[in-house]
Amino acid sequence: MGKFEPRAVSALDILLVRRLAGRSLPLDMVSALTNGIGGVEEAALAAVPLTDLGAPTLILRNGHGGYVGQFRHRLGDPIAQFSFLAPEPEEGNCREWARLLDAAVGQAGRRGAHLVCAEIAEDHPAFIAFRLAGFAVYSRQVLLRRAPAAVASGDPGVLRPALESDTFAITLLHTNTVPRLLQQADPLPERAENGLVYERDGQIAGFLAVMEGKRGIVIKPYFHPEVYDQAAAVMRSALMLIPNAAERPVYVYARAYQDWLRGVLEQEGFLPWAHQALLVKYTVVRAERPELSAVAALEPNRRQTPAVDGPIHFQPYNRDGQ
């Protein structure tokens, strides 16, 4: 393995990526559960130089096989999200995967990302590779699933679609309910309109971020502590308002700080589907700034900035110049 190093995919790697992608491990559950893993097409676009198309994809060749990892990131965004690893990691190859992950983090940092995230079960062999690469657990989560079925009766008026004017109130709710460390790794969706809000006494006390695709629906809930008793009614209303909730599976995130929510969801027909950890690693962002300094041999009489040891006292000023 010594002569093989991780690198960005090229057009010559696309066939290998296509072959391996059929046995991939998803690391971005929202994308995987809503639209599946479309890594081959995005890898092909990423192989085109001088563009920001597709998703950055790296490969570590190993003879006729290899290891492939992909993450999603728009240039300048602070967060990059791993999409998948292929083939699915197994016990015994963790160090090779750790090398690939470390290279991916470096590339994300060069693109401007401050941190890189991945979602994975703690008992999966790939978890060891992430830890070897320096990733830390920021939160644990349970994904609960409701199979396609008729929606039980409820009051759809409990919720309403979010408006652009709700953005500030939703952001404030997110700030006051989500642990600060987790806010950095899992911010709110960019558009508040992609969700439903619950109001109490004229204030937004609950928000459901709804992500929908051809394969399923994912909900990330945010509740103020004072409305826990309304969570069941809120979820029933959400299922009635989401158009395809009866035809597609619905997944709901229950993070560690929302452990109480699991019981509520199970009462509404949701069952635990996956237990995972949210893994995060910060990148080293290089700040390129020229710093000018005088050359002693050429500027012997250069002025020195005075150094002051202690407080600086200013004399009072009056209009007479005294």
Structure description:
The chain is α+β, with helices and mostly antiparallel strands and 322 residues long. It has nine helices and 13 strands. Helix 1 runs antiparallel to helix 3. The protein is elongated.
Write the layout of secondary structure elements.
Layout: E1 7-8, H1 14-21, E2 25-26, H2 29-35, H3 39-46, E3 57-62, E4 65-72, E5 79-86, H4 94-110, E6 115-120, H5 125-132, E7 136-146, E8 160-161, H6 167-177, H7 180-185, E9 195-200, E10 203-212, E11 217-223, H8 231-241, E12 250-255, H9 261-267, E13 271-282
Helix pairs in contact: 1-3, 4-5
Q: What is the structure about, briefly put?
A:
By secondary structure, the protein is of the alpha+beta class.
C-alpha end-to-end distance: 79 Å
CATH-level-4 superfamily name of the largest domain: Gcn5-related N-acetyltransferase (GNAT)
Top CATH class of the largest domain: Alpha Beta
Q: Structural class of the secondary elements? A: alpha+beta
Radius of gyration: 25 Å
Shape: elongated
Largest sheet entry: 13 strands, mixed
Query: Portion of residues in helices?
Result: 25-40%
Low-confidence stretches: 302-317
The number of distinct β-strands equals: 13
Question: CATH architecture of the largest domain, please?
Answer: 3-Layer(aba) Sandwich
Mean pLDDT reading = 84
Count of helical segments? 9
Strand content: 25-35%
